[in-house]
Specification:
Helix content is 52%, strand content 11%. It is of the alpha/beta class and 384 residues long. The strands form two sheets. Strands 1-8-5-4-2-3 form a six-stranded parallel β-sheet, sandwiched between helices. Strands 6-7 form a two-stranded antiparallel sheet. It is globular, with a radius of gyration of 20 Å.
């Protein structure tokens, strides 16, 4: 027997932001990152809807690209002072992930970060507030996931917080909010969504529902990502990518991820490589590594019509990455070679301990993870 996990309510489609009118309460905090949601009018639209519904509002702004433990604590302090009954995560994945972690600490002030990093380590929520996720990027699917990624700056490690308590109560997937995304952000987030779908499909948890969502997301991404990069104002294309991202989130919330994410988390924590770009850098190598333990990549090659083998699919991912103008190697990204190779072993050890590693179809050793890191510096083909 299996249970399908997801948000309690999901609204999707162009103009679906108006569904925010359906929530009722007294106070809400809106958590945002930088200036993008201000410049594109998303924040003002959300504020107007909530004010018209009688809410008192506070804004927590300044969530960084890789939200830190200190930012989470600052947000939880504001929540404690303001006492909201709704928390709104608005913007990219960082703002929504940070808002989830702030919510947990708000509900449980004595909760330590160490406890939060344990799988299922977050106690029951919703005694003080409920949560709305409104993404403005099409990548992580965090609006539908039981996951938040927070960075410990002192250790240089990204930690995925994994708990079904973190599932939002309401998610709004409106492609209108994505039209102002720059090309590089569209590319990185789109390849992040692709990695979610691929890793969920090949994970060691077999789930028909997750499989169907993962395959649907993969088709949408291969059909729409390049169009979204070249025609950012095309609402239908933007909605398709937003839906693909959400489908990927549904898929991996129920089947989880693999070592592409374990490896990418360390690359972001240690070198600040954007998560979608890090995933894109490692995914073809991870496909080739895992092909020795699963033939599911063959299915994906046939799905998108690029061939019949896992190698065909790996090459299709590389081609999509190239056409999206995302770096193909760590060297191309601009990381110093000596610094990279000095960090490889410690990143590999941390990646082995990442919760995502346990769901990978092939059980890796620390030496194999280290070898993947070495291979992707200059783009060597993985064959071990």
């Amino acid at each position: 027997m299996a249970k399908l996990f997801g948000t309690q309510e999901l609204y999707h489609g162009l103009g679906s932001l108006d569904e925010l009118k359906k929530i009722h309460g007294k106070k809400a905090v809106i958590v945002i990152g930088g200036e993008s949601v201000k410049k594109n009018g998303s924040l003002k639209r959300v504020e107007n809807i909530l004010l018209s519904s009688g809410f008192q509002l506070e804004i927590f702004s300044g969530v960084e690209a890789d939200p830190s433990v200190s930012t989470v604590r600052k947000g939880a302090k504001l929540f404690s002072e303001f006492q909201p009954d709704w928390i709104i995560g608005l913007g990219g994945c960082s703002a929504i992930d940070a808002a989830k972690a702030m919510w947990a600490v708000y509900e449980h002030p004595d909760l330590t970060f160490e406890k939060m990093t344990e799988i299922g380590g977050i106690p029951p929520l919703r005694s003080k507030a409920r949560f709305v996720a409104i993404p403005s990027t099409s990548g992580t699917g965090t609006e539908i996931t039981a996951l938040a990624v927070i960075t410990d700056r002192e250790k240089g490690i990204k930690y995925p917080l994994v708990s079904y308590e973190l599932l939002p109560d309401l998610s709004i997937v409106d492609g209108e909010l994505c039209k102002s995304m720059p090309k590089n952000v569209t590319a990185n987030t789109g390849l992040d969504a692709l990695t979610h779908c691929v890793e969920a499909y090949v994970s060691n948890i077999n789930d028909n529902y997750a499989d169907a969502m993962a395959k649907g997301g993969i088709q949408l991404i291969f059909e729409n990502l390049l169009k979204a990069i070249e025609n950012p104002q095309d609402g239908e294309v933007r909605q398709n990518m937003h839906d693909a991202s959400c489908l990927g989130g549904y898929a991996f919330t129920n089947a989880w991820l693999g070592i592409a994410h374990s490896l990418a988390h360390q690359m972001g924590g240690m070198f600040g490589i954007p998560h979608g770009c890090a995933n894109a850098l490692v995914l073809p190598s991870v496909i080739r590594f895992n092909m020795k333990s699963t033939d599911r990549y063959d299915d994906l090659a046939k799905l998108i019509g690029c061939g019949t083998s896992g190698e065909d699919f790996a090459q299709a991912v590389e081609e999509l990455r190239k056409l999206s103008s995302v770096p193909s190697t760590v060297a191309e990204y601009g990381i110093n070679e000596e610094q990279w190779f000095n960090a490889v072993d410690i990143m590999a050890r941390h990646a082995l301990m990442d919760p995502c590693t346990g769901f990978n179809p092939r059980k890796p050793t620390v030496n194999e993870l280290s070898a993947i890191y070495k291979a992707i510096y200059k783009g060597e083909v993985v064959n071990f």
